[in-house]
Amino acid sequence: MELNQVLVMVIAIAIAMFVAMVVWFWKLTKAEKRKVLEQIIFSLVLEAEKQFGEKTGEAKYAAVVRMVYTALPKVITGFISPKLLGILIENAVLEMKEYLLKNPAAQNIITI
């Protein structure tokens, strides 16, 4: 198999996976979609906390917003208003703080 054929096959698989993800997402109920978004944003908030550490709230917030818009397809992010995204991020921050208080071992990995 030639390199061009392999590249075409890899691209075709990537496109098929993308389409499948978008179709799967759109078949979810509104509540299920929100839950998926909440889980994604929670993981991005944790990542920003690990990356930036203490007292950089604005930098962490901007990083999470940037990661949301780069990680998720436009067909999904196009329906997330800045206000809703802000609410989801703030909720994720509160959830993270609660998680870290209840899980001292996680505090060694992430500091608030």
What's the quick description here?
By secondary structure, the protein is mainly α.
Question: What attributes characterize this protein structure?
Answer:
single chain; 112 residues; mainly alpha
Rg over alpha carbons: 17 Å
General form: globular
Low-confidence stretches: none
Number of strands: 0
Indicate the percent of residues in helices: over 70%
What structural class do the secondary elements suggest?
mainly alpha
User: Could you describe the largest sheet, including whether it forms a barrel?
Assistant: none
What this model shows, in words?
By secondary structure, the chain is mainly α. Helices cover 82% and strands 0% of the residues. The protein has six helices and no strands. The protein has helices spanning 3-27, 30-52, 57-71, 74-77, 82-102, 104-107. Helix 2 packs across helix 3 (57-71) and helix 2 (30-52) crosses helix 5 (82-102). The longest helix has 25 residues, at 3-27. The protein starts with a helix and ends in a 5-residue tail after the last helix. The mean pLDDT is 86.
Detail the topology: elements first, then pairings.
Layout lengths: L2 H25 L2 H23 L4 H15 L2 H4 L4 H21 L1 H4 L5
Helix pairs in contact: 2-3, 2-5
